[in-house]
Amino acid sequence: MALTIGIVGLPNVGKSTLFNALTRNQVLAANYPFATIDPNVGVVSLPDPRLDKLAEIFGSQRILPATVSFVDIAGIVKGASEGEGLGNKFLANIREADAICQVTRAFADPDVVRVEGSTDAEGDIETISTELILADLQTLEKTVPRLEKEVKIKKGDAALLDAAQKAQAILEAGTTLFQGAAAAGLDLADVASLQLLTAKPFIYVFNTDDAGLVDDDLQERLRALVAPAQAIFLDAKFESELVELEPDEAKEMLAESGQDEAGLDQLARVGFDTLGLQTYLTAGPKEARAWTIRKGWTAPQAAGVIHTDFERGFIKAEVVSFEDLVATGSVAAARAAGKARVEGKDYVMADGDVVEFRFNV
User: Fold this and answer.
1) Where do the annotations place ATP binding (predicted)?
2) What are phi and psi of 348, to 5 degrees?
3) Which of 16, 23, 39, 282 shows the greatest Cβ crowding within 10 Å of its Cβ?
């Protein structure tokens, strides 16, 4: 499932450093604006300790986790919606992403230059939001009159026009659609066809330092600022050092820093959830694997991720929850204990289901 999260932000906030750490790639990370011109794409494994346990139970030879795709998009500057700083190209890259991860600088370092006008995290967030809002307003200024004309001659979609007008009012009030839709009674699904930038799900990553990682007041203030989006606080430089270590060394270094989860693991997990995704699991002697599906998918849809024949010829699915499988020790024991269920076409998959599909083509 090729869904991507676009990493955006002002220049010199640590986007490329974060991306390097996420993907273990050496994308150019330089101390000057526009070091990133073309978007770089990286596929990141989703941490899932359940797979290790399944591999242990089934004697699996390999483990295949789910993945999250990140796109490193060049820095946006004030005026991007009018084409400043290659803005049109960058906004097009954002439009192609399924969610937006905004990296914001929350550290003080005189050796790392700030772009003109950048002073603090709150102002940087406002700059990016403003440019995305202006880009969406440009889209709606063209779209709404067209929809009004089509509805007037009874050849248009009145519901779409109403949704577009609600979206326009939210944006004109200076709020992104992701933040303001719920309060205004707008279902973002109703404007999906308009491909508006601020209607995409948002995640905020605050690139901070040791002081910021333990500053509860700072974190609380910034979380409130970006709600309902989730906020992640990490030190991109520390994370880039962490991924170069062996797992045991990395775990020790993480513990010494007072953290129980790497910031990158948290970002991958939150990003996966923000995209509206979940996993189900399969296991056997060859492999233990996590399969990516959308939340709310039925068993036949989930089966189709493995192969279209599985969906087309779906008969039933034998399902055991991961917790029940671990508790009983095997599928056979789960069956004996009445923990294995046979589900039909209407079954809605739950995260962590361990499944064996039966099909006939």
Assistant:
1) 12-17
2) -95, 125
3) 16
Task: Flag whether 15 is marked binding.
Answer: yes
Q: What tokens appear for 352 in the block?
A: 């962590």
Q: Is 40 annotated as a binding residue?
A: no
Report all structural domains of the chain as residue ranges with CATH numbers, in order of start: 296-359 (3.10.20.30)
Query: CB under 8 Å to 84, separation ≥6 — which residues?
Result: 77, 78
CB-CB contact of 245 with 30 (8 Å): no
On whether 14 is known to bind a ligand per the annotation, the reply is: yes
Give CA–CA dist 74/33, Å, rounded. Answer: 9
Residue 339: count of CB within 10 angstroms of its CB: 17
Give the tokens for residue 138.
Answer: 């440009």
Mean pLDDT of the chain: 87
Phi, psi dihedral angles at 11 (to 5 degrees): -60, 150
Q: What is the pLDDT of residues 208-233, one digit of tens each?
A: 998 899 899 999 999 999 999 999 99
d(CA 81, CA 89): 10
β-pairing, 341-343 vs 314-321, is: antiparallel
pLDDT in tens, 115-148: 555 568 888 899 889 989 999 999 999 999 999 9
Q: How many alpha carbons fall within 13 Å on the CB side of residue 301?
A: 14
Verdict on whether the full-model pTM lies above 0.90 = no
16 is in an annotated binding site: yes
pLDDT at 28: 40
d(CA 243, CA 236): 11
